[in-house]
Design brief:
By secondary structure, this protein is mainly α. The protein contains 15 helices and no strands. The chain folds into two domains: 110 residues, Farnesyl Diphosphate Synthase (Orthogonal Bundle); 172 residues, Farnesyl Diphosphate Synthase (Orthogonal Bundle), CATH 1.10.600. 71% of the residues lie in helices and 0% in strands. It is globular.
C-alpha cells in the first residue's frame, strides 16, 4: 500500500463528515488535506485508544520527533507524513502547526477536566483552531481574514463535537464542558459520569446543553462573518463542514440533547447531500 493509498483509506474509513467535503477538491488539494487529516487521526487515536498513559506519552513523543525530522529533510517513516510532507511547501504547511496538534493531544493525556471556558478555548486552539488554519491554507486563501475565519470555524466545529460526545467522553472519565458552567447550571460531574437517569438527564442538564449549543451557533455566525468574499469560493469545503456540523447540532437540539447514552450522527447520504448542496450554492 502506498502512502497515498494509506491516507485515503484512513480518511474514508473514519466515517468523518470531513471526508465528504474533501470529495469536491481538485486532486492536489484533496491529496494534501487527506494526508493532513490522516495525520490528525493518527495522533488523536493515541489518546482515544489509550490503555497505558505512559505508552501514550511515549507515542506522542515519537510523533513529535517524527514531525521535526521529516520537516528537517529526513525521510519520514510513517505513511501519513510520507504523503503529507512532500506537499507541505506547496501549501505553506509548517512543522509547528503539526506540533500544535500533538500538543493538543498531550493536553488530553494530561487533564480530563477544564476549569472554565477560556481554559477550554486554549485547548480548542490546538486541536481545532490550528487545524482550521492548515485546512484553509490547503483550500486556498488570499486574504489574512480567511485564517481568522478558519480558526473561528475550527472552534465552532470542536464545540459541536464536545456537545455530541458528552456521553462517549464521560465513559472515558472525561468532561470537556467547563467546570464553572456545570456549577452555573447546578450539574454535578458525577451526574455526567453516571450517564443514566435519574442522575444524567434533568432540566438542569438540558439548560446547560442549550447554553453550549447557543454558544456554538454564535461561534458559527462569527466565523461566517469573518470570511472575506474574495476567498468564499476557495473555502467551500470549510462551508460544507460548517453546514454538516450545524445540521448535526440542530439534530441534537431537536432530540432534546440525548447525548449521554447515544452518539447522534447524520447518515452518509445526508452528509453527501449537504456537501453537494453547499458546493452548488456556494454557501
Amino acid at each position: 500500500m502506498t502512502p497515498q493509498q494509506y491516507v485515503q483509506s484512513r480518511t474514508a474509513s473514519s466515517g468523518s463528515s470531513f471526508y465528504y467535503a474533501f470529495l469536491f477538491l481538485p486532486v492536489e488539494q484533496r491529496a494534501a488535506i487527506t494526508a493532513f487529516y490522516a495525520f490528525c487521526r493518527e495522533v488523536d487515536d493515541v489518546v482515544d485508544e489509550m490503555k497505558d498513559p505512559g505508552v501514550a506519552a511515549a507515542k506522542l513523543a515519537w510523533w513529535r520527533q517524527e514531525v521535526q525530522s521529516a520537516f528537517a529533510g529526513q525521510a519520514a517513516s510513517h505513511p501519513a507524513l510520507q504523503a503529507l510532507v512532500p506537499l507541505a511547501p506547496r501549501f505553506g504547511l509548517r512543522a509547528d502547526q503539526l506540533l500544535s496538534v500533538i500538543d493538543g493531544c498531550q493536553v488530553d493525556l494530561d487533564q480530563s477536566r477544564f476549569l472554565d471556558y477560556p481554559n477550554l478555548q486554549r485547548y480548542c486552539h490546538l486541536v481545532a483552531g490550528v487545524v482550521g488554519e492548515v485546512s484553509a491554507s490547503i483550500f486556498g486563501n488570499t486574504h489574512p481574514d480567511t485564517l481568522a475565519y478558519a480558526h473561528r470555524l475550527g472552534l465552532a466545529l470542536q464545540l459541536t463535537n464536545i456537545i455530541r460526545d458528552v456521553g462517549d467522553d464521560a465513559r472515558r472519565g472525561r468532561i470537556y464542558l467547563p467546570m464553572s458552567e456545570l456549577k452555573q447550571f447546578d450539574v454535578k460531574a458525577n451526574e455526567l459520569l453516571a450517564r443514566t437517569a435519574p442522575w444524567g438527564y434533568s432540566d438542569r442538564f438540558t439548560a446547560l446543553m442549550a447554553f453550549q449549543a447557543e454558544r456554538a451557533h454564535r461561534t458559527y455566525d462569527e466565523a461566517m462573518a469573518l470570511l472575506p468574499e474574495v476567498d468564499r469560493h476557495a473555502q467551500k469545503p470549510g462551508l460544507m463542514m460548517a453546514n454538516i456540523y450545524r445540521a448535526l447540532l440542530r439534530e441534537i437540539e431537536s432530540d432534546g440533547f440525548q447525548v449521554l447514552h447515544q452518539r447522534t450522527s447524520l447518515t452518509p447520504l445526508r452528509k453527501l447531500w449537504i456537501a453537494a448542496r453547499t458546493h452548488w450554492r456556494g454557501r
